[in-house]
UniProtKB/TrEMBL annotation, chains A, B:
A Gene Ontology molecular function term of the record: 2-alkenal reductase [NAD(P)H] activity
Keyword presence, Metal-binding: no
Residues passing through the membrane, by range: none
Official protein name in the record: Enoyl reductase (ER) domain-containing protein
Ranges where the Enoyl reductase (ER) domain occurs: 47-343
Organism of this sequence: Lupinus angustifolius
Length: 348, 348
């Protein structure tokens, strides 16, 4: 007798069309599929998971770039599942490193249950004395991005003068706090008065400013960095990078995590002050967190004690239910999230 | 009785005016001064030398930059001695590290005899089985620049695809040969058909091209680097940098030794392709040889055997007599020198 495969309902979020910029709620739609909660015997190395938390991150956007070779971000294509980081519980596994009951974080899909076949960025969660949702943020990809960018690319030392653009983002907040813990002078830029206040009052930045209120970014940076910048953690590129370049100190480092100001332009802005790197022996280095995941255990050794001892502040904005995922993603991009934007699907 | 100080005649080359670009013969003039060949007892840490060889190097030019803080190159000012690297013999010393009879290389002045007070970049010459003049080039500052830029900044590995602009220059020639010795694929650009031929036939470059004959540098680089560039050793900046940026491989390194195309512009060229560093995790690093002189002994251990074993080709163009120095310097800048341009003052 053939065993009849039992399937369960699987709610999903899909892209409605190609998304070429920041995704809006209307760019996505909900659908329901079915899925078997047991992997077939041919599914070698695959892992079947129940998605608990889904993460909304700034890289989750379309880009104007049509050249596949230089495309950083996947473009959402019509009727494809939204892909993103999440925290999951393993329900079935054909992978030697994962077993039923394991908690993991990594790249999954926006649905209730997922079969994960690309497992090279899937991490087992060994420490559950901290909220599981943290593994979408401070203990996950954004945390590793901040850690790798600041320590490995920035090579900071005590007393360094550190400037962070998009400082209110999940990565920027952590970079600033890591820099403060190292004894650096830290200034961040953000896009609202409220964010500026929170950076100073809650996250311990020495100074912060609202870039939208500044007429001359060069003068702004000279005001906050009369002695120059040692590390510029760049998330935006464009005019802010121009201003930072002329305010760098000798042998300064520009850590490039992103250049969000450039992605939607038909032609990127020419950077005139690049030549100044010669006069001051500047290093500009762009990086991706994927090249640093081998440091994840070392990262946890650093960050977990900071969290347990309350030395790092971390704020989440948790939307409940997959159906509220599209709105949460839009809110993250429009700056309306009041902390790291997470979508809660199930608590276990 | 007071001892009468004996002085000898001292021929010198001075700047006739401020020099804001490449120096021409007419920007300099000859004069004769006198000098005592004994240091006074107050001249602590100074060294009195007889200049044997003087070096003509591309950094010896004026710049439009008037901001002293970002000025890379000294501007020549009216009636000041031309300053440059040279090989010298110590005639008297109040410095503990140098004694009469020592041969040294480092920063000196364009005159027969000099008192050197800034001795932190003065190196004793211990190996005289190679021509002394080599210490103005392959065994001196240009050699150290090539070595530090290629090995320390470029971090090359066997099989890397290496592109060098201004490849015919003293630094570029050596970078190319070091890269070949490491097992890299090496392409250089130069400004004449003859230089291109010599790069290939004499210096062992895999390929070379005359940038003046190329209409579309992006297409040119795609032709020579269909799989992309791992290391771009940049001496020119501008359009060549734009083209290199879009042809870099993932995690490629752009080693910036200079951006000669930009120094004489009223406003530097905006670099539009800088944003591509994000897509491919590129590092751009500008350096100065001064930060790497501590590696000089290690450098000699690498380069001296290559020279002795004939594994590196090195060509000099030696002008005789200080009075021919200004013409030699102009020739170096106009590309007329047939090798590393040196001025011979005295053979010992």
């Amino acid at each position: 007798m053939t065993k009849v495969e039992e399937k369960v309902s699987n709610k999903q979020v899909l892209a409605a069309s190609y998304i070429t910029g920041n995704p809006k709620q209307s760019d996505m739609y909900l659908s329901t599929s079915t899925i078997s909660l047991q992997l077939s015997s041919e599914a070698s190395n695959a892992v079947l998971v129940k998605n608990l938390y889904l993460s909304c991150d700034p890289y989750m956007r379309g880009t104007k770039t049509t050249d596949n070779k230089t495309r950083l971000f996947y473009s959402f294509s019509p009727d494809s599942l939204i892909i993103g980081y999440g925290v999951c519980k393993v329900l079935d596994s054909k992978h030697p490193d994962f077993r039923k009951g394991d908690l993991v974080w990594g790249v999954t899909k926006w649905e209730e249950y997922s079969v994960i076949t690309i497992t090279d960025s899937l991490f087992k969660i060994d420490h559950t004395d901290v909220p599981l949702s943290y593994y979408t943020g401070i203990l996950g990809m954004p945390g590793m991005t901040a850690y790798a960018g600041f320590y490995e690319v920035g090579v900071p030392k005590k007393g360094d003068h550190v400037f962070i653009s998009s400082a209110f983002g999940a990565v920027g907040q952590l970079v600033g706090q890591l820099a403060k813990l190292m004894g650096c002078y830290v200034v961040g830029s953000a896009g609202s008065k409220q964010k500026v206040e929170i950076l100073k009052s809650k996250f311990g930045f020495d100074e912060a400013f609202n870039y939208k209120e500044e007429q001359d970014l060069d003068a702004t940076l000279k005001r906050y960095f009369p002695e120059g910048i040692d590390i510029y953690f760049d998330n935006v590129g464009g005019d802010m990078l121009e201003a930072a370049l002329v305010n760098m100190r000798r042998r300064g480092r520009i850590v490039v995590a992103g250049m969000i100001s450039q992605y939607d332009l038909d032609e990127p802005q020419g950077i005139k002050n690049l030549v100044t790197i010669i006069y001051k022996q500047i290093r500009i280095e762009a990086f991706t967190v994927y090249d640093y995941y081998h440091l994840y255990p070392k990262f946890l050794d650093t960050i977990l004690p900071y969290i347990r001892e309350g030395k790092i502040t971390y704020v989440e904005d948790i939307a409940e239910g997959l159906e509220n995922g599209p709105a949460a993603l839009e809110a993250m991009f429009t700056g309306l999230s009041s902390g790291k934007q997470v979508v809660l699907l199930a608590s276990e």
